[in-house]
Amino acid sequence: MEEEPPASDLAARGDLRSALPFLPVVLRGGALFWPPAAQESLRALALGPDVSRVASGDVLADALTDLRLALALPALPQRVADGLALFFDDLLSRAQARGWFAEVVPNLARLLLRLPTLLEDHYAKAGHGASGLRVLASQDAGLVLLSQELVAALLTCALFCLFPTAGRAQACLPTINFDGLFTALIHRSQSQEQKVRCLVHYFERVTDSTPTGFVSFERKVLPRQPVSDGITYPDIHAWSASSAPLCQFRVFSSGFIEDEEQEALQVDFANKYLGGGALSRGCVQEEIRFMINPELILGMLFMASMEDNEAIEIFGAERFSQYMGYGSSFRFVGDYLDTKPFDSVGRRRTRIVAIDALDCPARLHYESDCLLREVNKAFCGFFDQSKCQLYVKLFQDSHNKDNFPSINSNEYIGVSTGNWGCGAFGGNPEIKSMIQWIAASQALRPFVNYYTFEDASLERLEEVIQWILRHGWTVSELWHMLIEYSSQRLRGETYKGFFAWLLPSNRPNNEVHYMSE
């Protein structure tokens, strides 16, 4: 049997080989380096504006062009340079701009000078590739564990637009450089300016005090073909047979997923390309989360787009900013000190799971194939890889509710979610809330905390939850009702919403004991 190469032999590492074409450093003689001209440019930046002369946005743009040329990348486009000049010379206060160029930029350059060493240390500690930085392509289940310091260095590469772009589209990788953010500024969009303010604040924080924790990025896959040691993509019959009890479901008409106090999987209403429009003009749920927890952005470097049977879980991303508003009203309002505790690995106990909903005409959302796709997408996001053998047993022996283990909330983390896929993607909030409840219950999550964002269509959600729980329904029974309702909608036999269709019409609303908080 061929022996694994030693962890110190960088040239032989498959994980590094997959990532290297998308990194700005080079591998030579078994070590990582900046190209000499790039290193000289970074050294000048590190000495501050008295030496580098970088004391304004337009001069910074020139310096970044020099860096890019040293990396054999094209010059920074003029529209990006214009955006940099607009932000740092016009939109930022004089005092903050002086601090940015006198302190933050030199510190970021020093951080970049350490990038080769940070990467080498990372690969040395990652052993034989189990958690090393690498491209996680479609169907490639796995985890990458990075220090927050390395994340900050790599995000600085994105800020300075230093990542090579060749081959990214072919590898189905999202945009990673920040050029699109600065380009969008020239259209005088308030929300774009505020997004950049969040990111500038992040870089101010990490250069003032280097974070010491870790962040993991996991690609989760439900294999479509049977595997010997794990759960596979459930079909309609599997969901129809499940006797899993439905978990606790709490409804909140106000509040936000990111402010969840209980430890829970916090759902990112994702694009199939992680981050969506975070680095361009997007400014809704996913993009806002990536601005206030900027370490999430790094997943865009190496996580390929998601297929129907995939999800991405990010554990440990720190929150740095407070905000208000949504979309065009989004505003950065100041610093946020994240007090979430750390786990034994050094990750903050913030778990964010990215699941992308279907984007299709409203009628198609009632097709059984679409319902199956959505429940499996949510299940993929919610399942715990360490409990795969248990899931297999539950789907195989799912005709007896007594087979399901008692769920201890200390061991099983709940789900914090809301109207997933119900904005631009046109999903039905009533259906999507039930789908997520089904998926969370089958994944043995002890609770769902559901934030309705005051959606009028969910006024009866609490009533429906109580009615279903009082009748002791299982996953399969609720799934059957969704299938039956959707079939009637497609046949034109009902035009009611799911809640009105489900509840007895003669039952007064005040019979229900509400659970909202």
Automatic annotation (TrEMBL):
Determine if Hydrolase is one of this entry's keywords.
yes
In the Enzyme Commission scheme, what number(s) does this protein have? 3.2.1.143
Please provide the Gene Ontology terms (biological process) for this protein. carbohydrate metabolic process; regulation of DNA repair
Source organism per entry reads: Sorghum bicolor
Q: Which residues form the PARG helical domain?
A: 93-219
Name this polypeptide is given: poly(ADP-ribose) glycohydrolase
> Which residues are in the PARG catalytic Macro domain?
237-459
Going by the entry's taxonomy, the superkingdom of the source organism is recorded as Eukaryota
Task: Cite the active-site annotation.
Answer: D268, E286, E287
Q: Which GO terms describe its molecular function?
A: poly(ADP-ribose) glycohydrolase activity
* Keywords attached to this entry: Hydrolase
- Top class in the EC scheme: hydrolase
- Tell me which family the UniProt entry assigns to this protein: Belongs to the poly(ADP-ribose) glycohydrolase family.
Q: Indicate which residues the UniProt annotation says bind substrate.
A: N271, Q285, Y326
Q: Which Pfam families match?
A: PARG_cat_C (PF05028), PARG_cat_N (PF20811)
Question: Keyword Transmembrane helix on this protein?
Answer: no
